[in-house]
Amino acid sequence: MQDQDLPTWLPRLSAHGGPRFLQIADALQAAVADGSLKPGDRLPPQRQLATQLDVDLTTVTRAYDEARRRNLLEGRGARGTYVAAPKVELTAILDLSMNTPPPPDGVDFDDMLKQGLSQVLMRADSELLMTYHLAGGSDSDRKAGAKWLAPMFGHLDAQQLVVCPGAQAAIAALILALTEPGDVILAEPASYPGLRSAANQFGRRLIAVEADQHGMAPDKLEQACRRHKPGLVFLNPTLQNPTAVTMPERRRKELAGVAQRCNVRIVEDDPYWLLADAPPPPIATFAPEQVVYISTLSKCLTPGLRVAFVLIRDPQERERFLAALRSFALMAAPLTASLATQWILDGSADGLMKGIRNEARLRHRMARDILAGRYSGAGDGLHVWLELPAYWSATQLARAAASEGIAVTPAEAFATGSESANAIRISLGNIKERDRLQAGLQRLSHLLARRPEPFSAAVV
């Protein structure tokens, strides 16, 4: 074979240059990089190139396969093999808008999932896992719920618990069970958006009650109760969504006292209690007959379980709640409910939650370092509430961040009244990789430091 018989892009193979198929693939890559081969150029058939190089066909086949793996080549059937067009890398958005648990630190979640499902399938009748169940959960599910809530309440009567397909379903069923169309629901000025959605769907009126640095103001709540005769008061007292405020114990006792004096029900939505550093006792411990308590696994373990535990001490209210729940969500899925029960009872849930808590705290330290003086988090939980400099509005910033591939949630999304704070919520758990989260926070910090550019909409 003569040198002139070789394709111009391919040097002679070296006996000491490593595997020959890799020499061919490397030469292909270098030729594409320097422009000797261009997208759309046709390569020699494999047999022809094998003859030219005096190698066996398998070597060339392996070289072409390696080049395809590197996205250098593409096959076009009978027409042959061609140099591929450059692969376009679309940058995924850095989503700082969704409150989900971060990947657990030091926990092999895939193995935990496989082991948990294996145990469930060994111990449960598969037919029972795939059929209808009465709403409220099995005895085992309720016992698991009582164990899950033990850090908050100590020993609980498991029969006072209801197992629900997530906290949103529980909130909706409580609104249906405990209020009438046109009734008022009181909440803090910034509150969980799912509450507003459910209230609007069911024809209830949502009214904001003034809050301070410790949460809802007790005197303002009492005034609002006497004025509006609300059906419910909605509170999220631990690492509040979105402000990340944790009510001190004294404030919780004061709000419980108002509920007792005004004979109004409090719905205490408490998804972050187990993630918090030494949180006070739930409001439900101070007014057990006035408070319905919700604890979802979505924030401490994983949203995919779709399991929440609801503590309702009054038997009649519990039955009304179950009837309301059955009207739109017959039951929690037996398979995921059984998995949650297995994890709680065998201790896996505790290990997973600790891993999530450790990772969340590491991410808060990252956010504190990058956002510097703007950081106002509590050092735990899943999110940061960031008050903005006067030259940015929340909507402006959210829009500017989106243009740079970052999703954040402006304060308007959480407003229960006509006004909202000039702030955004930054969620720290939804981006799996720490380095990508760090990049997103750094880009956001740079954006905050400069003034907004005039907005001009594209016209087409």
Automatic annotation (TrEMBL):
Alphabetical list of InterPro entries matching this protein: Aminotransferase_I/II_large, HTH_trans_reg/aminotransferase, PyrdxlP-dep_Trfase, PyrdxlP-dep_Trfase_major, Tscrpt_reg_HTH_GntR, WH-like_DNA-bd_sf, WH_DNA-bd_sf
PROSITE patterns tied to this protein: HTH_GNTR
GO function terms (MF aspect): DNA binding; DNA-binding transcription factor activity; pyridoxal phosphate binding; transaminase activity
Matches recorded under Pfam families: Aminotran_1_2, GntR
Residues annotated as domain HTH gntR-type: 18-86
Keyword field: Aminotransferase, DNA-binding, Pyridoxal phosphate, Transcription, Transcription regulation, Transferase
Family designation: In the C-terminal section; belongs to the class-I pyridoxal-phosphate-dependent aminotransferase family.
Protein name (database record): Aminotransferase class I/II-fold pyridoxal phosphate-dependent enzyme
